[in-house]
Amino acid sequence: MRVVTIGAGLGGLLTSAFLARNGYDVVILEKSPYVGGRFTNLPYKGFQLSTGALHMIPHGEDGPLAHLLNLLGANVQIVNSNPKAKFLIEGKIYHYREGWKRLSLKEKAKTFKLLAEIKADKLPKGEEARMNAKEWISEKIGENEFAFLFLESFVGWAISLTLEEIPAIELAKEIKAVLKWGGPGLIKGGCKAVTSELAEIVKQNGGKILTRKKVVEIEENKVLTEDGDEFSYDVLISNVGIKETVELFGEENFDRDFLRVVKSLKPAEGIKINVALKGKPRIGNTVVLTLDTKRINGFNEPSSISPELAKEGYSLIMTHQALKSKNLAKERKLGIEDLYYLFPELDKEGEILLIQTYLDGNPVNRVASGQEHLEFPIENVYIVGDANKGEGGIEVEGIALGVMETLQKLGLERFDEWYL
């Protein structure tokens, strides 16, 4: 059976690796000169930055992505963070467990009750599920400033949104995911270690990956590229976004209600700042959530387990902030001001390497978490990647959950126990 995959990002490569391994005739078409999309390495000034993600997997070696990699026998090493997280407030860094001290006895009791309910799958329903996450937390545990700051940093770091931008059900499922699969982990060698290995698995199982192949149209089970080539398919996997896939087919092939929902989908957008600091690792393999910054939501240190990601004598720090306005100059300025709050001696100890902005056609996610989940209405066409993340799936874990759903629909595997 012939498969054409549009886009060699994480979702496309992951799905194609399973299909190729199961005997499908797979061809991946990628418009860029390299594979990996926003999940590979970017060589820059002696450092290995990333094209998008932060060289980190939200649930480390115990989450959905790691599970799929293990099923494929991928030669990828993920190291769980220890501790799972820290937080910074008033210039000091604390272990995440120290946060409990900032809740009253009554607030602690309410929080433990809420976590127990989520763990037992007693999730918000109906109108409660649709209310924004900040209102929901306020109702559940009260108006605790620390709790709001911590969760605001968490969702900004994890999914590039604010508490008011996501529904209660999405936050509840993300909390459930953390309770179920634990905290993050760094990838030895960075993002490229994952996507390069997946590309090799595709090729080893007879699949083809063609770069510099931009798809411009889809018609009658055929994919047409900019340079005039045609590729016939029985199954089409699209890793380029749901809106973009609709455009390739032509809007005339879809009903008005479906198009209305598609056009209403909003991306998640953000800014990543890459920083070089002289000397040994500063925080190790963890993430620091920044609670009293103006914009930055958190930072990590990928070179703490992969020194080769940084130039000799330096450590690589990556910060991330949800984009709160389209005034990019202002957003970057506030992010840089935060950097000097986090690292007061930055000018003496290192430098800002690169500021990467993700929006419009190259956002953090083409479809932000918590929005309506759409079934693509054309038979044998499947959307994967950051436009089809499973509910509660944080970033690449959401991509993995979406791939699981696709593989299950195709009858290749069953993943019921992984769905949130």
Structural commentary:
The protein is globular, with a radius of gyration of 21 Å. It has 420 residues and is an alpha/beta fold. It folds into 3 domains: 2-79 and 188-265 and 367-418, FAD/NAD(P)-binding domain; 86-181, Polyamine Oxidase, Chain A, domain 2 (Alpha-Beta Complex), CATH 3.90.660.50; 270-358, Polyamine Oxidase, Chain A, domain 2, CATH 3.90.660.50. Helix content is 34%, strand content 21%. The strands form 5 sheets. The chain has a 7-stranded mixed beta sheet, with helices on both faces. It has a 5-stranded parallel beta sheet with strand order 10-2-1-14-20, with helices on one face. It has a 3-stranded antiparallel beta sheet with strand order 5-9-6. Helix 1 (10-21) runs parallel beside helix 8 (191-204). Strand 7 (86-89) and strand 8 form a beta hairpin.
Secondary structure layout plus pairing:
Layout: E1 2-6, H1 10-21, E2 25-29, E3 41-44, E4 47-50, E5 56-57, H2 64-72, E6 78-80, E7 86-89, E8 92-95, H3 105-119, H4 126-130, H5 133-141, H6 145-159, H7 168-181, E9 185-187, H8 191-204, E10 208-210, E11 215-219, E12 222-225, E13 230-232, E14 235-238, H9 242-249, H10 256-264, E15 270-278, E16 287-290, E17 298-300, E18 314-322, H11 328-342, H12 346-349, E19 350-358, E20 381-383, H13 396-409
Parallel strand pairs: 1-2, 1-14, 2-10, 7-16, 14-20
Antiparallel strand pairs: 3-4, 5-9, 6-9, 7-8, 11-12, 12-13, 15-18, 15-19, 16-17, 17-18
Helix pairs in contact: 1-8, 1-13, 5-7
